[in-house]
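Researcher: I've been going back and forth with a colleague about how SigE family RNA polymerase sigma factor might be arranged in three dimensions. Neither of us has a model we trust, so I'd like an independent prediction. The organism is Actinospica durhamensis, in case that matters for your notes. Sequence below.
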Amino acid sequence: MARHEPDADFTAYMSGRMLWLRRVAFLLCRDWDRADDLAQTAITRLYMRWPKVRDSVENLDGYLRTILVNAYLTEQRSPWWKRISLHGEHDEDASQHQAGGLAFEFDADTSLDLRAALTALAPRQRAVIVLRYYCDLSVEQTAQELGCMPSTVKSQTARALATLRRVLGSEFPIAAP
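Model: Here is an independent structure prediction for SigE family RNA polymerase sigma factor. You can compare it with whatever you and your colleague have in mind.
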């Protein structure tokens, strides 16, 4: 019976994180099917390490998010994803987002414009924007998650915001970082 306890702990933890994990994955890759695959990869990798990390890792959400972002960046480096381009209807309305405990509601057109603008970003820049502004992480936390220096996060953020300003135009005023 003690054998099922780690699985029960893992199931309880993940049941409260699935929607969040899937939304972060979608913001990274812009495809719900790929988001599901990325989320599943992150879940599997966390499950494989669960006995070691459940008591030793202070921030499990951060650990899971790091696994997800690393899986996304690794996938972006592989050539297979470039051959597949799915442009279809999405099975969920992503016009309501949760960031830093605050809910932001966008109309459908604004939400589509923002999601489309994210595709103009390089994968690492998209990861920085999602971590900084959707997950509400600081520069230092983002650097830790991506395994880089805070100065890299700052420069990637500046470049990403400049690209978003250019793509979105004047109707979406984006403040400087």
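Researcher: What would you highlight for our discussion?
Model: I'd start with this: The radius of gyration is 17 Å. After that, consider the following. Residues 83-106 have pLDDT under 50 and may be disordered.
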